[in-house]
Amino acid sequence: MKTLKEFDYDLWAIEENGRKRYFARIKATGEETEVSLEVMRLLLRQEKQMRREYAKQQTIGPVLSLDAIRDGGSMDEAAWLLDTRQRIDSEVLTAELTDAFCKTLTDSQRSIFRECLIEGKSQSAYAAEHGMTRQSVHDAIALIRKKAKIYFA
User: Fold this and answer.
1) What is the pLDDT of residues 11-61, one digit of tens each?
2) CA distance 127 to 112
3) pTM here?
4) Three-state SS across the chain?
5) How far is CA 112 from the centre of its chain?
6) How would you list the strands of the sheet with 19-26, edge to edge?
């Protein structure tokens, strides 16, 4: 599918003596011609469909299909090698930063950080398992967040 910059024609309408006239210009040749209302509607529908497809491609990326290769469709083969959902570099970097941050925490804070903030365990459940009050877990989380704000700033 062509992008809008490579669209094959320009469309416009003018009004003369109370009558609308519709025109199309073919970009490749520069030819201009008057077209009927039906042809104008058809061309506008095609242009609108192309705009929607182009916008969709911009948001979700190229569609990877073996059918496109088999049918001789144009495909950027590098797209097969790139998985936009995986960010290995950022995941490794995040893991390294998290490990370094954990070294600044006490053993108790580290345990609360891993179980409550990373794994998503509730403060009440953590307190019950470790013989603590929920308020002490809440206070520890507040301290962890304060340290994190300074550490990651």
Assistant:
1) 888 998 989 999 988 877 888 889 998 988 888 888 888 888 777 776 666
2) 9
3) 0.42
4) CCCHHHCCEEEEEEEECCEEEEEEEECCCCCEEEECHHHHHHHHHHHHHHHHHHHHHHHHCCCCCHHHHHCCCCCCCHHHHCCCCCCHHHHHHHHHHHHHHHCCCCHHHHHHHHHHHHCCCCHHHHHHHHCCCHHHHHHHHHHHHHHHHHHCC
5) 33
6) 9-16, 19-26, 32-35
